[in-house]
Amino acid sequence: MPGFAVSRSMVKKRILFIFVMTLLFSLYLIGRLAWIQIVRADELYDQAWKQWNHNIIVQTGRGAIYDQHGRLLAGSTDVQTVVAIPQQIEDPGVVAGALAPILNMNEQEIAELVTLDRSAVYIKRKVDPEITEAVREMNLPGIVFFNEEKRYYPGSNLASQLLGFVGMDQGWSGLEFYYEQYLSGSEGRLLYPADALGRQLPHNYFGNFLPKQSCNLYLAIDESIQHIVEKELERVVAEAAPRQALAIAVDPYSGAVLAAAARPDYDPLHYDEFDPERWNLAPFTSSFEPGSTFKLVTLAAVLEEGLFDPEELHYCPGYAIVGGHRINCWTVERGGCGTITFQQSLGTSCNTAYIVLGQRLGAQKLAEYIEAFGYGKTTGIDYPGEGSGLVFRETMLGPLELATTAFGQGISVTPVQQAMAVSAMINGGYLYQPYLVNEIRGKEGETIFKRKPELVRQVISAETSEKLIELMETVILDGTGKTAALEGYRAAGKTGTAEKLDEEHLYSSDSFIYSFVGFAPVDDPRVVLYVAVDGITLGPRYGSATSAPLFKRIMEDTLNYLQVTPTALTMTKEELN
Q: Is the pTM above the cut of 0.90?
């Protein structure tokens, strides 16, 4: 029948349409599945991983700091941090009330933390073991723990200004700050699996992912010499009550800093309880007038230029007139030094003699030698905030500035500059860059960095260096540095007394910085030592009673520690000549 034929045809078309649509839909599903399972597989897996797993940022173990003999100066100990998983805490008030007295925190503060919309939140970091155990015993839901490290210093405040200190997660001063990128490693993660509501899944555990390990520092510092230096600085503080006392000891043939310290200092574990001015290490960061120790620069220059005759006579009436200004010698109150030879002028520390020598050099030459010895710019030592001092350039050296600079007044230098300049004067003329770190090693002991002494330049000849050594020894034998003489060792050096400026920027008549720079033994220098005592308030107020004896005590103990064989006797002035 015609109607039946039409109906049958329509059915076939409908079946075909349904089949095609089903096929197309199936192909779409297969394609969609392929798109998800193959093309977007990695992307979706990462998204799912983030949903399943929650993490907390933690710090890797901090690298240790050792002295040159491998003795620990700064290390880390295991501690734990208390962490809350807010989604697992049903009653924040109960949890806050339980934790507050144990963690010594405000209950409201804890309640706010445990209700934050986060996967995990710190409650208190790096707590003592007994506190952690007390919290653990309460078995509070949603309160977990993970391991971290806390800094400690075996020597307490020994080398505190040198080492610096660490905040919660990073170094904030000293070597802890300067070498942060090596000591800190990088951030790690504490990972735990959780359901869609952030609840930790049962039968799973926390995992630690530490992407990069930290490194250890091995210093040029010798812990024993550092201890000797700090012990004697403490003695000066007790006896003279100065505003500040400091010392730096270096190896003259490499630039290695063997010890550096200042008083007052601070406790690195309680750094926030001390004046921030105590955090910096004055031998590197502070500058002040050098006084007569700077005469060595003028002396080195005139020796190198052939302008120094040791037997030439000089008369000092106690002052000199330069450019219409009267400049006093420190001996003015007793009528001056009188008639002396230029060789004697170093031992007597005659200002007027060095004014004459500075004038012979002229502004250009003196400025050249000042720059060549490294003054007026940072030495490049690996310590943050190094000072540069302030010296006159050639164009600024008028007659008056030339005269005062020649004997160390009107300029400022840093102790480390002084130590390195004198090292160059007595090691054959070679100026080295000072440094604190010998090596950087990985956790497995592999060498990351190994220091090689860095020669900056040769400033003077070996012959000039030998003459300087002879002249510097006369300061101790028969000059202003007699109280710096060592028992059993020949030593040499130079005293310095610098007047300080008062509030009106005038030189004070009763406030001085007493310094001494020297070395020993004379025939084979092992250590160059610079010491300074600023603002004495108790006892004798002159260098022969403070800075020179300080040099003597530190140097004697240091040479004994280094097992340097004593010489028979210190040479007399006549034997030296």
A: no
